[in-house]
Amino acid sequence: MKRAQVKPSPIRHRDGFRLHFSFQGKQHRRFFIKDEDIAYALQSKVNSLITYVKYGFKTVPQDVSVADFVFNTAVNQPYQQDTPKPKSGMKLLTLLSEYAGTMSLQAKSETTIKTEEVHIRHMERFLQATKNKRITVRELNVKFFLKYKQYRYDKGVRTDTVNKELTTFQLMMQYAVDNAYVKENIVKRVKKDPSQVPDFRFRTNSEILEALKTGKHTKREEKEIKRYRYLTPEEIKRLASIAEGTPTHLVILVFACTGMRRGELRKLQWKDIDFTRNLIWISSQKQSRKRKEVKRRVEMTEKLAEKLKEHYETSHKSKWVFSRKGKQLTNDQLYYPFQKLIQGTEFEGVGFHVFRHSLASNLAAEGIDQRIIDSILGHQTEEMRERYRHLYPQKQQQAISKLSYM
Fold first, then answer.
1. Which among 83, 170, 279, 294 could bridge 187 via Cys, Cβ 3.0 to 4.6 Å?
2. Taking CA 375 as the corner, what is the angle to CA 374 and CA 376, rounded to the nearest 5 degrees?
3. pLDDT for position 322
4. Structural domain 92-188, CATH architecture
5. 16-23 and 26-33: which strand pairing?
6. Model confidence over 269-327: pLDDT tens digits?
7. What is the largest CA-CA distance in the chain?
8. What is the pLDDT of residue 84?
9. Distance (Å, rounded) from C-alpha 280 to C-alpha 268?
């Protein structure tokens, strides 16, 4: 038997890590892990396991490959060739905890993992509030999840949020099916409710206030309508002036001029910026249905390029464009300074996503081709385009009026 060539560290792969080992002249790689500490801990287990296999301290079961045995043992998952034994008495609380422990091993963004963890905590609170902590996975039915939906609605939660929570539980139950804990993914039979707000158009703050004057909307509907505010160019200038002289000023300019999502800005590296051609390459998983990372190109304005060059002179030692002590900014480090700046101003309550809404809406109002807006923002769905398409007619009418046929 050839000596196993074990490397001490996991392989860096995009913005995460992959476990690996070399055995009998063949390379084996598996799993995509976002968290660096988890990746190094699991790689250490892989290194130990392959050493035990080499010296005969562990025996690989029949009909199971070395790769399946080592990788799946390291992450406490059943071998692919094995038929998992049903856990008929598994409690839902146990499944919630087990599924949460596997999320970092899946190809999910950090934001998605945190969101699903929040959904799991809401389910745990529901079980406690309804005194259902002992319910088993096999006792779950459609009625149970309908009760959960009503519980969340009673808390004032938006329909879209409840639907996202159901998606998380559907993924969790599919995990349970794959591991033979249950035979059916019951959440697939739970109907998701349509949004209760019929008008999803982006509007200015004055238009929103005018729409709410009717008094016909519930509090939940009012909150939903306010989410679709966009800022006019003049408002963006006023907001940027509030942040003048602070690190948040450049953050606002980048958001406003590129329409980046928050996660995309956090992942932005200096290698993604081409100062020669004034281009920014934005990495995203949102544009890929398979959650593979893709890049889109956005042109920089001269002023934005100038500001970024100035920032580069003091920040180029870190690979991240926006960092703290050389490390990538966390969501909180990005979010809270911005919220502190706008507190007590006309912009209080808006988030970073308002700049994305604003870029799409302002470009549409200027009559920019739909395909160009799609390429800048990475939009793929007709539902998203409908939110700002109503801004086109005025410009179209102005253009047609210039054709003096009569």
1. 170
2. 95
3. 94
4. Orthogonal Bundle (1.10)
5. antiparallel
6. 999 999 999 999 998 765 444 455 678 899 999 999 999 999 999 888 899 999 998 89
7. 93
8. 47
9. 9
Crossing angle (nearest 10°) for helices 159-178 and 92-102: 90
> Domain coordinates of the chain in residue numbers?
11-76, 92-188, 230-397
Q: What are phi and psi of 110, to 5 degrees?
A: -60, -40
Q: Where do the H-state alpha helices sit in 227-381?
A: 233-242, 247-258, 262-266, 302-315, 331-342, 353-365, 370-377
For helices 353-365 and 382-389, the axis angle rounded to 10 degrees is 60
Rg (CA), the chain: 26
Compute mean pLDDT per 10 residues along the chain, 406 residues long, and list them: 52 74 80 76 83 78 80 67 55 89 67 88 94 92 95 87 93 87 92 70 85 78 81 94 94 94 92 94 65 79 94 90 91 92 91 90 84 80 62 55 47
* SS3 state of residue 241: helix
Q: Does domain 230-397 have CATH number 1.10.443.10?
A: yes
User: What phi and psi values does residue 400 have, to the nearest 5 degrees?
Assistant: -65, -35
Spatial distance between the Cα atoms of 24 and 255, rounded to a whole number of angstroms: 50
Confidence at residue 137, expressed as pLDDT on a 0 to 100 scale: 92
Spell out the residues 6+ positions from residue 80 whose beta carbon is closer than 8 angstroms to its own.
68, 72
